[in-house]
Write a structure and sequence with these properties.
The complex is a heterodimer of chains A (184) and B (266).
Chain A (H helix, E strand, L loop, with lengths): L10 H24 L13 H7 L8 H4 L4 H7 L9 H5 L6 E2 L2 E2 L9 H11 L18 H5 L19 H10 L9
Antiparallel strand pairs in A: 1-2
Chain B lengths: L1 H30 L27 E6 L8 H10 L9 E8 L4 E4 L20 E9 L8 H5 L5 E3 L5 E3 L9 H5 L6 E3 L4 E3 L5 H5 L5 H5 L5 E5 L6 H6 L5 E2 L11 E4 L7
Parallel strand pairs in B: 1-11
Antiparallel strand pairs in B: 1-9, 2-3, 2-4, 5-6, 7-8, 10-11
């Protein structure tokens, strides 16, 4: 009874099946083209991406990349209280200076008021968030007034930036001044 | 005559010694692998790790808030290392100011890149109870939300725990930027992809410390191997300190730990 109603024509089914198969073939083809070969080797990502990230250029070196060529600075810097300050913080990354063992450019030197700004990044007393025991805090311009120097003096006129107390100590030794050591 | 003969033969010996010495030294230079430039390793044993993943080490990052002086050298190093476009920050330093009425003020002018030169003007100096700095960077979650939401598999977690971005696959849809509970991600306007701190994966793989850890003058940032019981990070994480992670309730289980983390920050 039921079978009488069944259509003898099934072209509509064939058409749908052909379209679906064609779509699947195209889809799989596109997928094979778009998804990289090494995708999914370790997880849901491209395995080669790890190597890409590893191959990123190292632009900052370490102090060891600077010191072999600057032995005098090395001696001075590491004898002073600034020994924990990295070369590249103030001078810039080694990659801007050396490429393939050749000097390609000089790193800019901070001068004038820029030196003062640089020093006060760490030593500004008015920013009251700094553990006193770890670094010395300076209030500006009171410090200049206390030392009886002009207010437009920059820090590096009295302090060697690499060994901040070197000149101060030398001057005191020359003048025979011993006090003030424990002050402040 | 005999003296001269002796002199020559002595010289010959010296000459041969020098030539031999030079040859050996020269050949040694060829044998020694050209690693990360010619700088000695800061993390011992990293050059032996030549597989796709770091097997022997489990890295952790510790930020010590009680030490940070807010100088911003980490931010400077970071910008130099990655040429981060202006206005975007892979790492930054926040300043917290708490007044006597327990109001908390947080700011981070240019991400701390210029350091902190001036005090906050909107808080009277005599009402400030406490001030401190909090460096922020990628938390390298053990269960990263950013990886979960990435529709193209561009953000992934390596088996050694680093969460990285495939710059070639990223389509900059910003899902990960929204998903990150710590707001460490941004869309890099130059590469037009998502970007974030990688704990300097490329440096670490070559045995160097992350750039920010390397420059920190007060050791507020520490990076080390938890499998090494002698390492500083192992000791700190196994001591009775106040150690915490940011937003522990999010369940991301960060590998970035803070020493002296304050209630106001968490």
């Amino acid at each position: 009874m039921q079978s009488n109603y069944r259509s003898k024509y099934n072209t509509h089914l064939i058409r749908i099946i052909i379209i679906l198969v064609a779509l699947a073939v195209v889809g799989l083809g596109v997928r094979a083209m778009m998804v990289p070969k090494d995708f999914g080797k370790y997880g849901h990502y491209r395995a080669g991406a790890i190597q890409d990230e590893m191959d990123r250029e190292i632009r900052n070196g370490t102090n060891a990349s600077c010191l072999p060529c600057h032995p005098y600075i090395k001696e001075m810097h590491f004898s002073g209280v600034h020994k924990t300050v990295s070369c590249e913080f103030c001078h810039g990354p080694v990659a801007d200076h050396i490429k393939d063992d050749q000097v390609i450019a000089k790193l800019p030197k901070k001068q004038g008021q820029k030196i003062k700004t640089l020093c006060l990044r760490c030593h500004n007393q008015i920013i009251r968030a700094r553990p006193k025991e770890s670094i010395k805090m300076i209030a500006m311009p009171q410090h200049l007034e206390d030392k009886k120097v002009r207010l437009d003096h920059t820090c590096d006129q009295c302090h060697n930036v690499h060994a901040p107390l070197m000149w101060v100590k030398q001057a005191r030794a020359m003048m025979g001044v011993i006090e003030e050591e424990t002050k402040q | 005559m005999k003296d001269i003969q002796a002199e020559i033969s002595k010289d010959r010996r010296a000459f041969i010694k020098k030539v031999l010495g030079g040859t050996i030294a020269g050949s040694l230079l060829l044998v020694i692998p050209a690693g990360a430039m010619d700088i000695p390793e800061q993390i011992a044993g990293m050059l032996e790790e030549d597989g796709p993943f770091i097997i022997k080490k489990k890295f952790a990052f510790i930020v010590d808030i009680t030490r940070c002086i807010g100088c911003g050298s980490c931010c400077v190093a970071d910008k130099n290392e990655y040429n981060v476009p202006d206005g975007n920050y892979r790492t930054w330093v926040e300043r917290y100011v708490i007044d006597v009425d327990d109001n908390v003020y947080v700011d981070s002018p240019s991400g701390g890149l210029e350091g902190y030169q001036v005090p906050r003007e909107d808080v009277a100096q005599d009402t400030i109870r406490d001030t401190f700095f909090v460096p922020k960077l990628c938390n390298m979650c053990e269960k990263p939300s950013c990886v979960q939401v990435c529709p193209v598999g561009a953000t992934y977690q390596t088996e050694d725990g680093f969460v990285l971005i495939d710059q070639k696959r990223c389509v900059a849809c910003s899902y990960c930027v929204q998903a990150c509970p710590y707001s460490v991600r941004f869309i890099n306007p130059v590469t037009k992809t998502a970007d974030k701190c990688t704990w300097c994966y490329h440096r670490v793989r070559k045995g160097l410390l992350p750039a920010c850890v390397n420059v920190c003058p007060v050791k507020a940032r520490l990076f080390g191997d938890l499998n090494d019981k002698e390492s500083e990070v192992y000791k700190i994480l196994h001591q009775p300190h106040v150690i915490s992670v940011l937003k522990p309730g999010m369940g991301n289980e960060p590998s970035l730990h803070y020493v002296g983390l304050r209630r106001e920050v968490v």
